[in-house]
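# nightly structure sweep
# worker-07 picked up a monomer target from the shared queue
# config: single-sequence mode, recycle default, output format = structure tokens
# input follows
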Amino acid sequence: MQLVFASNNKNKIFEIQSILPDTIQILSLEDIGCHEEIPETANTIEGNAILKANYVTANYGYDCFADDTGLEVEALNGEPGVYSARYAGEQRDSDDNMTKLLDALANESNRKAQFKTVIALNLNGEQFLFTGIAEGQITLAKSGNQGFGYDPIFQPLGFKETFAQLPLEIKNKIGHRGKATQKLIDFLKTEQ
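# output follows
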């Protein structure tokens, strides 16, 4: 089975392909000739995943799935949430985003946070949603050089390390994207 993953983020594509069984091959947006920036104008994580999946299906005719992820920090009323990638501005710079978040939490003792991923799958004319959540907290400083995004400042529940310090196999098991992807895989296995 071939499915388009509505992303050109090589980190995300690698992470998801490493979880999927060999029977499912991922095509990126680049692979299908989609070079435009798909608008992410929804005000929810679910909404953005749906927008991206629908864009590919409507404009390119492929069955596809798209994800959107946000980091939701309790003390910041769920921010940065849907704006996680652009938290510090349109340049979408992870270091700027982490610095802004750490500054916002500088005098805050409640550092509880969760990563939330929603995958929207368009398959055979139907749409399905899969959600994965990883609970944890925001650290006081960056640690580790694995992963991407906010991984160096997110410490998952039950671990002393940040996502950026954990091996990919562990992150995939306990992480938000891994959990949502596992639900997607379980569903696709029933469809094959």
